[in-house]
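Input/output pair, single chain:
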Amino acid sequence: MPDGTRIGRAVVIGAGVAGLTAARVLADHAETVTVIERDTLPSGPAPRPGVPQAHHVHALLALGAEVLEGHFRGLRAELERAGAPVWDWGERLCAALPGGTPPPLRMGMPIQTLSRPLLEHVLRGRVAELKPVTVLDGLTVTGLRTGGPGEVSGVRVAGDDGEEEIGADLVVDASGRSSHLPQWLAGHGLPRPRATVVDARIGYASRTYTYPEGRSRPSWMGLLQPLRAPDFPRGCYAIQIEDDTLHVTLHGAGGTRLPRDEDEFLDYARTLRSPIGDTIASLTPASPVRRYARTLNSRTAYHRLPRWPTGLIALGDAVCAFNPAYGQGMTVAALEARLLDRTLRRRAPLDGHGFQRALARVTALPWLMATVPDRAWERSGTAWTVKSANWFLNRLIDTVPHDPRTYTTFSQLFHMTGSPLALADPRLLSRVLAPSRPGGPLGTPAP
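Output:
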């Protein structure tokens, strides 16, 4: 066990990516770690009710993969042995952007694509092998146990055998979007935290495909056609994943009607600029069409509460949930686990309130990157700052197909491996803000 804060008993609510990475960190600092999951966990890489978005395309950004590798040594190699391919983002991504498709460009940015169930399965296996960790599934946390005013000392749980209490020196709420923490805190006399919601009314329809014998694979490993308000309310994201399978998610924003069956799915795909319609027309469907619409961004301001109980922290989607279209959720969860590890390595008692304030700083930039384009779908009342930011973002993206340096910079920002300060580089600004070619897309550099 590394030097730093010592914890006797820790309880983690939720066995998703955020909960599992937190449990991995806590295993280095606590005598026992109990992970409590409401679902009955599958024995293999299969979807489960508590993660309905698992049927849809997931992205682990380059920074997220790097941080997870630090928590779980050899993770990328293990996932690759399970069939998850690794490829270069610039070289093997087909990005159908409004201003065109950038040509292949080797960036040295390795990306690994896989299904969410496979990632959770491998992480669960790694965490369950840790000596301090016990995973309990089929149990619902119904509330917090208190040891005194302003002190959390465990959780109350309910299962098939009735209700019981599990004591803890630290409780970590990683229960995701369904978290009941605001109500639990209010029940203990704390003010209800303010929540900010940004909803672009984006929905998904997804399915997987296999390749018939003799069918050649596309030259790309990932295909992206992003949404953009107000002119591009349809898009898609497709990736090659394990088992030689193509996973396809069609997007629709602003209340766009999504396909419900096989014929509608193909018809919708054929309306897109990208080659996805032609690609899947000759493939074999391997799943039904599944839809999902709970894609709003939500941020709960726990860091602004005047008081915070000892023995409690919250992280993951329980604090800040993003529109999954931007692929930030799992990466931010990994960053929050890294923050927890660094916090616990200090020789001081864990300050839960201080942790929530630090976590707010971790989520600030991803929140901005997700909500600025999503606010553009709002029909009225959009602030001038949001309009200005979207104007610049659109010009930046429209420059990407025609400028390799801008493409690389934007990709680094998207994958959170680059600093936002790169946008202030005068050379980049001169290219992005150059006058458009006559008749060309907004932001296309002039000759």
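The longest strand covers residues 140-148. The two ends are 60 Å apart (CA to CA).
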